[in-house]
Design goal:
Helix content is 30%, strand content 14%. It is an alpha+beta fold.
Length: 182
């Protein structure tokens, strides 16, 4: 496999799985951003979230310009807006965001100049995002898959990854990121 080196590096960095997929298998839909707008505290408060992130139409066009991608799957625990996320969990999410940005850069330096990563959930590098200004961490911050209109559940299921609805804030959940390659 041409990208085994990168999938192994992702797993060694904490991912549960890293799968090479066709970007054409990624499911996009307009309803996904509505879940951000009506249900996520990041909406309008993060430069990596709607309305600042690419629309589903722009995302589909972006995906159609690639032949390969790596779907990165990792486990975590979700906390709602009124639930306190542990420092360990916050650090783990930040680390996975850092890992996908670093992998994007590694792919670029290895000649895959089109490499671009999409994260999972709202960016957490800054306590408060300055949406009126510029990003303080442009080398690390990437839009979330769901913020771009990607149906993460359908995409993971198409890739053979089991995923279900998380029913409590204390239940383990699955997070996914996507790194577009070529």
């Amino acid at each position: 496999m041409a990208f085994e080196k990168y999938t192994r590096m992702l797993v060694d960095s904490g991912a549960k799985r890293a799968l090479v997929i066709r970007p054409g298998s990624v499911v996009t839909s307009h309803w996904v951003r509505l879940k951000c707008q009506y249900g996520c505290s990041g909406y309008g408060r993060k430069l990596t979230c709607p309305p600042y992130s690419p629309t589903p139409k722009q995302t589909r066009k972006l995906l159609d310009g690639y032949k390969r991608a790596i779907l990165v799957v990792y486990s975590g625990q979700w906390r709602g807006e009124n639930q306190k996320t542990s420092g360990r969990e916050r650090k783990k999410r930040r680390q996975m965001r850092r890992v996908i940005a670093e992998m994007e850069r590694a792919l670029f330096l290895d000649g895959y100049y089109k490499a671009f990563a999409l994260g999972a959930g709202p960016c957490n590098f800054c306590k408060e995002c300055d949406v009126a200004g510029t990003c303080k961490h442009p080398e690390l911050a990437r839009p979330a898959m769901e913020a771009c209109g990607i149906d993460v559940f359908a995409t993971l299921r198409r890739a053979g990854v089991k995923i279900g609805v998380v029913r409590t804030y204390h239940s383990p959940c699955t997070f996914a990121s996507l790194i577009l390659i070529e």
